[in-house]
Amino acid sequence: MTTIQVTIDGDKELASKLRSFAGSSLDLTNSMGGIGLYLTNFFSGEVFASRGQVFGKPWPALNPNYAAFKAREFPGRPPLIRTGLMQRSFKHKSTSLTTSLWNEAAYFDNHNEGWGVPERVMMQIDEQRELRIVKYIVSDLTTQMDNAGLI
Hints:
This protein is mainly alpha-helical. The chain has seven helices and two strands; from the N terminus they run H-H-H-H-H-E-E-H-H. A two-stranded antiparallel sheet has the order 1-2. Helix 2 (29-44) packs antiparallel against helix 7. The longest helix has 21 residues, at 127-147. The chain starts with 11 loop residues before the first helix and ends with a helix.
């Protein structure tokens, strides 16, 4: 666990407000919920639409025999979208300080990790997602500091 230490000097009233704010329980419920929703929508949307290209890891082509079978049985559906279950199964749960994300499809990890099938990455926090996550948290903290009369 990381420890953050804040040293406050200067204006006594401002210093007192900052000490009070820093000493209170940190509640990032709004940003954690926003992050969870953003990422579940991103993973189920843009990642599938780009077939992994958004991460710079395009999904490998289907086996030619399976591709022919899939074209006959499920015309017009791209790789990994036969029933749409995996794409609809991204979930999140948020608390005041955490966001957990997962996919409820039983076979999800096989595809995401390449266990027994070609790897097709669907969940990954890349630099662009990391920057978006930081923006959610900064916005939440800024709003709380503004409400506390600190900015």
